[in-house]
């Protein structure tokens, strides 16, 4: 790994409500190890010397963000989130452009509810993609047997898992290229589920960087419980 890692901007889309958690607040504000999930998700970037600044996309009426200590961190700027993830990320990129960020600057987009990103994985991503012409993302190869089903829930075939990877975050792309890909895909009304899919739609081939499987996204209650148990075992 190179000793010299590129500087970068970070974007955290955090305007979602996380309905599958069935909680009394958006999942990014649930507690984990004495802090909110969102604070942990931000922490790995805020502790990194290569961070140029961080933009968090939030719901306009979000009442929880102002209560967090990090809301007053001068390195963090808040923008209004969109109806979907792609809109939230695009708003953040537009803000970075308005603040003078260059098209060639690296931007790392990370899930608000992915609190267990390791510094080693972050540095590995930065090092491996520092000179990549496209960019890429952390990912994990599929481990289990995979099935493709029909509309009735019956198996059609077993999928070759050696060709399947789970997309994780951060996802790292040049500001200008990602901005264009997201803006054009929104105009074309294309379904975009992450930044890599926008770049793929634009004709690019992002590179996968294998990361840790415990960099999981909190989606269901059992995900949060698993992390709580794992973190309690560290003490």
Oligomer: single chain
Ends distance: 30 Å
Helix content: 25-40%
- Largest sheet, if any? 7 strands, mixed
Strand-pairing-aware structural class: alpha/beta
Characterization of this structure:
By secondary structure, this protein is an alpha/beta fold. Helix content is 29%, strand content 24%. The chain has six helices and eleven strands. It has helices at 37-46, 85-98, 119-129, 175-187, 195-201, 221-234; strands at 8-13, 31-32, 35-36, 51-58, 76-80, 106-109, 135-141, 146-149, 155-159, 165-174, 207-210. The longest helix is centred in the middle third of the chain and has 14 residues, at 85-98. The protein starts with 7 loop residues before the first strand and ends with a helix. The mean pLDDT is 94.
